[in-house]
Design brief:
This protein is an alpha+beta fold and 231 residues long. It is built from four helices and eleven strands, in the order H-H-E-E-E-E-E-E-H-E-E-H-E-E-E.
């Protein structure tokens, strides 16, 4: 069903939003990086609301393509979220209010279904935590008024998670994977999460390099938001 397809897309986007939280609870042996990530995670966890913009880009055969752009608001206190998505073949809107998910493709009619809401978000976050347990070579440095935190997850963990999400990995050679966070020095708010992935896949019988770049921008922390059911 169409709505099931967009539910899966929604969960993947939530993974992108949430994956960095788990890094904050490990690596106790890395003093500065641990302190920074704990403060950043605490700042987000205590946020009453925030806005987000997600862009997903793909580079293959010397072509740069924007796969998807998503804009929305999160109200975790009241278990509410809204977002609009633009992708290659159209657009869609998603609204979550409690355990109800509302979806509209283009200018079509709203569809509604029962949804696990924020509990699904938390469950999905938990599934991703293993990627970060064995992160390699975490680093941090100051960039003006911000901190930059970088981690490199274990390749095996990433491939396992891709398989758990139903993605085919037998012909995928993961070359590199890095997650970079931009964190405000005064508030410890996460402002940007950038994920860069380089893989080599079997495309039309040829080994072909592919790069994906996902960027999440977070803003307007703790500002008043109003998210209502559309129908």
């Amino acid at each position: 069903m169409v709505i099931d397809r967009f539910t899966k897309i929604f969960l993947v986007l939530i993974v992108l939003l949430s994956v960095f939280l788990f890094y904050s609870h490990i690596h106790a042996d890395i003093k500065d990086a641990t302190t920074l990530s704990l403060k950043a995670a605490g700042s987000l966890e205590s946020a009453k609301s925030y806005r987000f913009v997600i862009t997903s880009n793909l580079s293959i055969l010397d072509e740069d393509l924007q796969v998807m752009k998503v804009e929305g608001q999160m109200d975790p206190v009241n278990n509410r979220m809204c977002q609009s998505m633009e992708y290659a073949n159209g657009s869609a809107e998603v609204v979550i209010v409690g355990d109800q998910l509302y979806l509209r493709e283009g200018n079509g009619s709203w569809q509604v279904r029962q949804f696990e809401g924020m509990e699904t978000w938390k469950d999905t976050m938990s599934q991703q935590s293993s990627i970060l347990y064995n992160a390699e070579n975490p680093t941090m440095y100051r960039d003006g008024d911000d901190y930059i935190l970088e981690i490199i997850p274990e390749k095996e963990e990433i491939l396992d998670q891709m398989q758990n999400m139903g993605l085919e990995t037998s012909d995928t050679d993961l070359k590199s994977y890095i997650i970079r966070y931009r964190i405000e020095a005064d508030t410890f708010h996460i402002r940007e999460i950038e994920t860069l992935v380089d893989v080599e896949i079997n495309f039309m019988g040829m080994r072909t390099p592919v790069r994906t770049k996902n960027v999440i921008l977070l803003s307007d922390y703790n500002e008043k938001v109003t998210i209502k059911a559309p129908i």
